[in-house]
Sequence to fold (185 residues):
Amino acid sequence: MSLRRIPAPVIDVLLVGLSLLDAAIKLGTDGALATASAVVAALALFLRRRLPMLVFLTTLPAALLGGVRVAALIALYTLASRTRCRALLIAGAVTLAACLGTHWELPSQLDDPEHLAAFGYTLAQAAAAVFLGQLAQARRDLSLRLGEISEVREHERLLIAQTVLAKERAQLARRCTTSSPTRSA
Fold:
């Protein structure tokens, strides 16, 4: 069963559930503000197709306060699949990576290669969400173009068939006029 056959609301419910599970594992019972922002971020995913930028911005506080990743990565993926502005997507990936990395005690940890590597991995996760979103957008565009090409080919095939039929009719008409006996008066 492909994902295209699963209804969009079912996918949304699964993604919200996954995001809430991520928040429950990451946050536990600590921090009411972080928990509230994680719940809001997860529930905002229901609007991700209609308002991708707003949903992405809504998920950033959860990433900033509690390090919750799933909702923000899903929102960034959706934003990348809906927009063509590369500068916005780069800024979104860097912003998400910065939000997820702010729980470090900067700048004292900037010299620590382990923390820099962790930031690099976080940035790679955000970039992967952007790349996958762009891939989904390209696939959708290609599918639309292939549909248009199929329609044009079908129309072309019909025109060729009509042309061939018109030529055959013209030949038959010529044969009938040349082979029919002429009447003499």
About this structure: Residues 113-179 form the longest helix (67 residues). The chain has one domain: 3-139.
